[in-house]
Design goal:
heterodimer, A: OB fold (Dihydrolipoamide Acetyltransferase, E2P), Dihydrolipoamide Transferase, 23 strands, globular, B: 82 residues
Amino acid sequence: MPSLGADMEEGKLVEWLVKPGDRVSKGDIVAVVETQKGAIEIEIFEASEIGALLAEPGQMLPVGAPLARLGAAGDKDIAAVPAGARVTAPTAPAPEPALKPPAEPVVPVAGAPAPAATKGGTVLASPAARASAAELGIALEAVTGSGPSGAILLSDIERHVPAPATSVAELAPEGRPKGKPGLDMTEMRRAIAAAMSRSKREIPHYYLSHDIDLQTAQDWLTATNAGRTPDQRLLMGAILIGAVVRALAKVPELNGRFEAELFAPSTAVHCGLAVAMRGGGLIAPAIPDAQGMDLDAIMQAMRDMIARTRTGRLRNSEITQGTITISSLGESGVDALFGVIYPPQVALVGFGTPRLRPMVREGRVELRLAVTATLAADHRVSDGRRGALFLAQMNRLLQEPESL
Amino acid sequence: MTLDEIRATFIADLIAVAPDIDAESLRDNDHLQDDLGLDSMDFLNLVSALHKRLGLPIPEADYPRLATTAKAVAYLDQALAG
């Protein structure tokens, strides 16, 4: 069971799309897993042959539990792997698969809650559960664990805490919130809460804002779209993404991932988009390799990704490998959005709602379409001066939309 | 196409774009963006679907005429006749 986010502890196998003996190539979709972010398609991390399927559809499995046994394509000995051998699940970025020594019986299933299990006097608990318990001042011994061997999971800690007077679900009109079928809004709220709390706990944010004249870009967009059928038209959102991606080339320390106390800049821009779910909540899947895309390609990728986020399925690489995120209020919001960085990324670019404003242009005040662009960035990695350079570069690029 | 057929077509495409909208409770004067929560991408997908189905160009300048179901039915009727 791959980790599909820093705070994921378990996932439910929904279905297999392969069977033993099937040959698969890197990136093929082999299974569907249900998580707090909805159903996610799981891609295989290397070319191989499916040896044995170890998990059954419907099973809830902790992160790291084996789903299937793989062998090299054509490997006759796959079936000879000792029973109980574990194949590690891929995490992002996909590592080399490694064989772990035979361990406890495979496929632990979350069953009836058991009293807190101890091992050598220490209560068994996941790191996330431990951190959360410490923060909330809860004694682990008092919590009932539902994980493997009775280990305490983050969800157990959350169950232990009295529910707030008003839950998110209750805030929605007509009882049960509407949204994507199969998506549990309470669970999604919990996933957002966990990621955002971690961000504010670990990342020293700094914020910058800049008002950008969008009139030139709007005029160019209107002229471009006039000659196109609806399915070929561009949205302002695609132009803004294009400008962000290009501007990152000048300030690469905003693009990458901060993991294990180390920032790893990325040459590829896997550009995350915070997509609001109809009915509440949001998911931020990433457009892979946006650095090589023109506006038409960005528009197509954005269209496809938003549709799949809201009504279909995302792939695990799309939700785990983002290197920066863009959050935009769209057409009917307010002036500015100051975002919370999505860990382990190091920057988030926010766009308010574009509207007509008095702007000074060549010494005169004119009514122009303008947008407030903001940057929330990680002070461990970059400083305000570099962040300012990024926003200024974005402004320059947006004055020449035809060059994007 | 009759007005009823146009209306049924429009609502079918609207619900394909935003599956959580309940056809039963949809009112003709609901504003697609303000009341039903469509964003610019949803709206473009709706316009694309109508274009594909009805063969109408639907230029951007006409978007305000699709702001509600009632307005859209009148607009599409006129465009199909023209």
